[in-house]
Amino acid sequence: MGKTDLRVIKTEKILNETLLEILKEKSFEEVKVSDICDKALINRSTFYSHFTDKYDLLNSLIKNMKNNLIEELHKNKNVSNSKEYYIELISILLNHLEEKQELYTNIMINNQYSIAINMVYNALTEDITKRIEEDKPSDIPSRIISSFYIGAIFCTVIEWLRDKGKYTKEDIIKYLSKLINDNLK
User: Fold this and answer.
1) Closest C-alpha among 106, 182, 118, 174 to residue 150
2) Does residue 92 contact residue 75 with C-beta atoms inside 8 Å?
3) Of the residues 72, 88, 171, 178, which has the fewest C-beta atoms closer than 10 A?
4) Largest Cα–Cα distance in the chain?
C-alpha cells in the first residue's frame, strides 16, 4: 500500500506542476487535458484515474494552496491589538505570496475569474472573522468589520502582485500600517 500511495502522490504532484507550467503560457480556459498529459508524459487514462477533469485538478491544486496559506495564517497568534493582528496577517500573506509569486501571478493575475482569488479571499475571511469574533467590538457588526479589512487587504495584495517590483513587501506593510487603527473597541 505504501508504494501505491507514493506513486499516487508522485503522479498528482507531476500533474499539479505540469498544470502550473502550462498556465505560464495559456489561460486555464485554453488548457486541455491532452495538453497536460502530453507535457507530463502520462496517458489520459492515468490522468483520469486521479482526476475527473482539468477542473478537478485545479481544485486539488487550489485546495493544497489554501491549506498551506491557512496553516501560515494560524501563526498569527501573539498580538495585543487589532493593528498588530492586521499588520502581522498582511506580513504573513505577503511572505506567502512572495515565496510562491510566480505561481500566484500565473493563477490569480494571468487567468481571469480564477478560483485562486476565491481561495485567498476565503482563507482571509475565515481568519479575520475568527479574530473579530474573539475581540467582539461593541458597536460595529463583525461582518462589516470583516468585509472592510478583507477588501482593503485583498485589493492591496492584488495590486502588489500586478505591479511586480513597483512596491516592496515592506512598503506595503508600512503603508497599510499607517491606514489601520490600533483598536476597534
Assistant:
1) 118
2) yes
3) 178
4) 59
pLDDT at 21 over 90: no
| 3-class secondary structure, 181 | coil
What does pTM read for this prediction?
0.71
Q: Are 57 and 44 in contact (CB under 8 A)?
A: no
Give tens-digit pLDDT for 47-94. 999 999 998 998 888 888 888 888 888 887 777 777 888 888 888 888
Q: Nearest-CA neighbor of 61 among 5, 22, 26, 92?
A: 22
Q: How far apart are CA 183 and CA 72, in angstroms?
A: 23
pLDDT mean across residues, the chain: 82
Residue-by-residue DSSP string for 3-62: HHHHHHHHHHHHHHHHHHHHHTTS-GGG--HHHHHHHHT--HHHHHHH-SSHHHHHHHHH
Percent of the chain scoring above 90 in pLDDT: 17
Is residue 72 a contact partner of residue 90, using CB atoms and an 8 Å limit?
no
Residue 55 CB partners (closer than 8 Å, separation 6+):
none
Altogether, the residues listed in the chain come to a count of 185
Of 8, 81, 13, nearest to 46 by C-alpha is 8
- Spatial distance between the Cα atoms of 70 and 24, rounded to a whole number of angstroms: 25
Burial class of residue 134, CB neighbours in 10 A (0-12, 13-18, 19+): exposed
